[in-house]
Amino acid sequence: MSSENLEQICLENKKNMEKILKILQEIQQDIKDIKYSNSKMDNHIDFIENTYNILKNPLTIFSSTLNRITGNTYEDTSLPDIKIKKLDE
After folding, report:
1. What is the pLDDT of residues 65-88, one digit of tens each?
2. Is 5 helix (H, G, I), strand (E, B) or coil?
3. φ, ψ at 60 (rounded to 5°)
4. Chain centroid to CA 48
5. Can you tell me the distance from the alpha carbon of 44 to that of 54, in angstroms, rounded to the nearest whole number?
6. 49 and 82 in contact (C-beta within 8 Å)?
């Protein structure tokens, strides 16, 4: 192989490495964006679960009272507990 061929191969390899580096940097940014979005979704889910747990008993009492007033009789008018598995469990 001539030195010109080696030089050409080195230049092509360098260009390819730069392309790969750029793609990796884009992937890293995408991962950061996904982590941020996931964190926001986790916070929202926690908010909904907490709100539900706070309102569950008053809503059950209201529902039972309303059913008694209207004459509807149901065996169980309580709202169900939330049972959500976390991914790390």
Report:
1. 888 888 777 666 666 777 766 666
2. helix
3. -65, -45
4. 14
5. 15
6. yes
The type of residue at 65 is T
Contact predicate 62/55, CB 8 Å: no
Q: What are phi and psi of 83, to 5 degrees?
A: -125, 95
Tokens of 75: 């065996």
Instruction: Say if CB 50 and CB 36 are below 8 A apart.
Output: no
Predicted TM-score of the model (pTM): 0.57
User: What SS3 class is residue 26?
Assistant: helix
Return d(Cα 45, Cα 84) in angstroms, integer.
10
Residues 6+ apart with CB under 8 A from 77: 60, 63, 64, 67
In angstroms, the CA 36 to CA 33 distance is: 5
